[in-house]
Structure to design on (126 residues):
């Protein structure tokens, strides 16, 4: 976000597989940069989190200190280079996720298919 010390980023989408390969506790590193017109963007700092932490949504746990390791090593009074506060986090499921009720496993019927089969069996008994 240009010319703003308190930016609010536009929403964006990252597939879970790309973010953490389905491992909800895997460390995710976020690098924060200051945008420059000439393309020489300045590194502000970084923080780490996980999908599980992010999925808690807006809470006290989703305020991240942005730390610049170079500044931390050089300045004794360095605290941080700011914070990032997560205001929202949304999980969209797809039918291709194994946790989806719509997922078509090659090994067993999904929940909907089992319910239909159970209903069909029940109907023929009556």
């Amino acid at each position: 976000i240009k010319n703003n010390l308190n930016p609010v980023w536009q929403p964006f989408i990252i597939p879970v597989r790309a973010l953490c390969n389905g491992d909800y506790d895997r460390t995710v590193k976020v690098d924060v940069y200051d945008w420059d017109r000439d393309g020489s963007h300045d590194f502000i700092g970084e923080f780490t989190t996980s999908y599980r932490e992010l999925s808690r949504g807006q809470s006290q746990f989703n305020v991240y200190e942005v730390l610049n390791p170079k500044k931390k090593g050089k300045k004794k009074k360095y605290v941080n280079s700011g914070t990032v506060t997560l205001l929202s986090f949304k999980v969209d499921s797809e039918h291709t996720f194994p946790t989806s009720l719509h997922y078509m496993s090659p090994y067993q019927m999904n929940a909907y298919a089992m319910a239909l089969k159970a209903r069909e069996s029940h109907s023929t008994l009556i």
Q: What stands out?
A: Residues 8 and 99 are 32 Å apart (CA to CA).
